[in-house]
Design a protein that fits this description.
Helix content: under 10%
Largest sheet: 7 strands, antiparallel
Strand order of the largest sheet: 13-7-6-10-4-12-14
Oligomer: single chain
Number of domains: 1
Distance between the termini: 30 Å
Number of strands: 16
Order of helices and strands: EEEEEEEEEEEEHEEEE
Length: 199
């Protein structure tokens, strides 16, 4: 490696000074590439053509466990029946297992705004601004039991778990886990996309 030495100047204001030298060595600056990629879980396909009757329940499909950590950027729901947007109360909640079987706690959640919903059946894609999910966690969805929040369509082969609750905010505010029951092989037609950053 080539280096160069430079003589230091003497003081210009005093009769004596200190002579010194310093070495400049060439530096190599590397750039670290940041990559983003999306992983999609779940499905909006309904192989039954029937409703999943999710009103009043918080549900998740156990086969749709996140295998990478990142931010959920979009959720798609195949509505059947549709919601009434101005009256709907639908919450996306990231959940994780506790050490107690069939009990999960909510780590974070996002209420879907009425402006993101339409009063139509079928697939609706909703942008999610900031909802973090870790590897091994699940995205659940809660439809308020008001008859106006709609439901997802049913899709077999998703291995759904559900928990009946009238107010999930109470569980979050009081740090109380929810007890879930297996619904068997059926599930709901919900899909979500996780954006992951890799250095």
């Amino acid at each position: 490696m080539d280096t160069q030495g430079y003589a230091g100047p003497f003081s210009l204001t005093a009769g004596s000074g200190i002579a010194c030298s310093f070495v400049i060595a060439p530096s190599i600056y590397g750039t670290i590439a940041t990559q983003r990629f999306n992983s999609t879980y779940g499905t909006t396909y309904t192989n039954t053509g029937t409703t999943d009757s999710d009103s009043g329940y918080i549900c998740f499909n156990s086969i749709d466990v996140a295998n990478t950590s990142g931010f959920i950027v979009e959720t798609s729901i195949n509505f059947l029946p549709a919601s009434v947007p101005s009256q709907a109360n639908i919450i996306l909640a990231v959940i994780a297992w506790t050490v107690i079987p069939n009990q999960l706690y909510i780590t974070s959640m996002y209420q879907i705004p009425s402006t993101a919903l339409s009063n139509q059946t079928g697939v609706q894609s909703i942008s999610v601004p900031s909802l973090y999910i870790q590897e091994g966690q699940y995205l659940s969805i809660w439809f308020a039991n008001n008859g106006l929040s709609g439901s997802a369509a049913r899709s077999n082969g998703r291995n759904q778990y559900w928990s009946a609750t009238s107010n999930i905010l109470y569980n979050v505010q009081n740090d109380i886990p929810l007890t879930f029951t297996s619904f068997g092989p059926a599930g709901n037609a919900v899909q979500f996309t996780v954006n992951t950053i890799v250095n």
